[in-house]
Automatic annotation (TrEMBL):
Protein name (Swiss-Prot/TrEMBL): Glutaredoxin
UniProt similarity note: Belongs to the glutaredoxin family. Monothiol subfamily.
NCBIfam families (alphabetical): Grx4 family monothiol glutaredoxin
InterPro entries noted in UniProt: Glutaredoxin, GRX_PICOT-like, Monothiol_GRX, Monothiol_GRX-rel, Thioredoxin-like_sf
Pfam families: Glutaredoxin
Gene responsible for this protein: grxD
PROSITE patterns on file: GLUTAREDOXIN_2
Amino acid sequence: MSILEDIQAEIDGHAIVLFMKGTPQFPMCGFSSRTVAALHEAGAKDYRTINVLDAPEIRANLPRFSNWPTFPQLFIHGELIGGCDITLELHESGELSRMVAEVLAA
């Protein structure tokens, strides 16, 4: 399986996937930390995270796959939501909570 197929399998296999630097317990950048905090505040507790610092092939290829240049990258129901700024905007508007609630209800 190619790395792009691996990335697609992760996105297809989990309702919420966060490609980030570090882990939710030990984020390795402020953007990843703020994204995790927004997800938790929106009610997401059980979601897939991939530490791109431990996965150099994913780190190198995900920007090409998603057409998004930076990390973190949040996917919900197979769709790229965006990075930290967009996630925070969605959280502040209440939209992120609605999206997480839809995942929990499914």
